[in-house]
Amino acid sequence: MAKRKAGSGGRLRQPERHAQILALLRRDGIVRVASLANAFAVTTETTRRDLDELAQSGALQRTYGGAAIRSLTDEPGIGLRGLVRTPERTRIAAAAAELVEPGDALMIDAGSTTSLFASALAARNLTLTVVTNCLPVASALAVSDRCRVVVCPGDYVAHEAGVFGAETVAFIGRFHANKAFVGAGGITAAAISDAVSAGCAVKRAMIERAERSLLLVDSSKFDVVQFESVAPLAAIDDVVTEARPPRRLASALRQAGVNVTLAP
Fold this sequence. Notes:
264 residues; Arc Repressor Mutant, subunit A; Rossmann fold; 2 domains; 15 strands; 38% helix; 23% strand
């Protein structure tokens, strides 16, 4: 994490600090007060307050001198995730949007990066049909009269700004798509994984119903394992990211026949 200099005008606001802390926990499993204070250029008292507030919300577990991730099933809400690595994810979204062709039928799952992808895709103003379980995705694409948006039924989860459940999965099974664009909480040489089982079920359904499946992940997700496996690497066709995967993951992707697109 890049250090922010005090008084430079680049100091993070509290919601951004909270999002960065949760991203670090997802990657490392534990954070320390002293290192966070140094990275954010704030006092240790401010950092302790940040950790206490996140602990009170149930997002993490306080430990002596820091905090730890609560469990593999915990995931920050889409709003907090949207504050983390935004420039990198915006680049990924723009690169992914360029892979869509006029007339495509798409499936797009719920997530912070897929929402950015929908906004980038809307700017291209293509003739498209999109099936999605994500309200921000639907809102971004519905502004174009050239894009038909089909919103899945199901149980609305405000935390994820999307709909999930058996009815959602069954509905997806009614359609075929040229391409599916999905996100994930982690990708390793073994599999793609995510924290929330309901979301995993939707991702699997979209991957199964698409001719080509594209995973949108930033490099903070490399070598991260979350609660449930979505699919093996061979189930997807492309990974769109902003940095080269580490050697072991890159080798596994090649062996699985997965193309890696690096966002410029």
